[in-house]
Specification:
By secondary structure, the protein is of the alpha/beta class. It has a single domain (about 5-185), classed as Spore Coat Polysaccharide Biosynthesis Protein SpsA, Chain A (Alpha-Beta Complex). It has six helices and nine strands; from the N terminus they run βββαββαβαββααβα. It has a seven-stranded mixed beta sheet, with helices on both faces. A hairpin with a 2-residue loop joins strand 7 (about 115-120) and strand 8.
């Protein structure tokens, strides 16, 4: 059961004044570096993007979204289609606090069950911190055909395991510039 990693970075970044989240810094390093460190146990990690530019200088293989304007589900679909592995561990590009321990919990559950795996914390599912499998492609395609791009809706139609993450702060994502400023000052 081969698995690759995929950092989801295909958003438009409107709420970040157009600045790409993968390039935002925390503790002197870009967000992408923190996330790549958490995924270092994986042999192959991709960066899912909306277009090749402005990511050409990043030394991570790019997966250009084949399904624009569909949100994360399109990036996940593109990743599963392009990668040669059976599954994809996806992490959003705006969660620099994620740790290798959390990644290992998700990978371990996938290796034991062969099913999709979704992180959860404080009673909330985090469908962008998850493992999706090739078996999920049929449902993803069905949803995309009817223009339903909501990740939580996908979870209503696939079989998955849940992994509770003790430190919910690891899953904190940065949605706008004010949250970014608070995040870097609070930590």
């Amino acid at each position: 059961m081969g698995i690759a990693g995929c950092v989801l970075a295909g958003g438009k970044n409107h709420r970040m004044n157009g600045e790409k989240k993968v390039s935002l810094t925390w503790k002197g390093k870009p967000f992408l570096n923190h996330i790549m460190t958490a995924m270092e146990s994986l042999e192959q990690v991709y960066l899912s993007v909306e277009a090749e530019e402005p990511y050409g200088q990043i030394a991570v293989p790019l997966i250009v979204d084949k399904y624009p304007e569909t949100g994360p589900i399109g990036g996940i679909r593109s990743g599963l289609e392009i990668c040669g592995e059976d599954a994809l561990l996806v992490l959003p590009c705006d969660t620099p606090g994620i740790t290798g321990k959390t990644v290992e919990l998700l990978l371990d559950k996938y290796e034991k069950t062969g099913k999709a795996v979704v992180a959860a914390a404080t009673g909330r599912l985090h469908p962008l911190t998850a493992v999706y499998t090739r078996d999920n492609l049929k449902e993803i395609d069905r949803m995309m055909a009817v223009k339903n791009y909501r990740m939580k809706a996908l979870l209503e139609h696939i079989e998955y395991e849940k992994v509770n993450i003790a430190n919910a702060e690891e899953l904190t994502n940065i949605n706008n510039y004010n949250q970014y400023i608070r995040f870097i000052w609070d930590r």
